[in-house]
Description:
By secondary structure, this protein is an all-alpha fold. The protein is built from 3 helices and no strands. Helix 2 packs antiparallel against helix 3. The termini are far apart.
Amino acid sequence: MHRTRxxxxxxxxxxxAMLGLIGIANAQPDMGYQNMxxxxxxxxxSTYADFDKKVEPLRQQIDAKRxxxxxxxxxxxxxxxxKVQSLIKKIGDLDAKLYTARADFRRQLNDKxxxxxxxxxxxxxxxxxxCGCR
Length: 134
């Protein structure tokens, strides 16, 4: 009985310590953004918003073309079919436009003295790649 009480007390303390460390880690501000002036932060937010408005139509077009390509693939259309080749080219062209938009976005952040890392504000981890901030 005594051994069980010691074990449960040790486990409770370990869990409390672990939760405390998690709380400290979550309390850390966003990567590098805590050193910005309010003007820089506002500028960063507007730059992210402008970028999202600019690239959202590109993302939608890319998704639509990929859905078309997937449909052709599942219908058994061969890769050398002109329709498939046309979709592959269109997706590549749209990807190139998206890449250019990401490069312009990073340049704009750099020109404003804003660190170009972290995901798009409020978009979650799935959108990290789309911000072009790596």
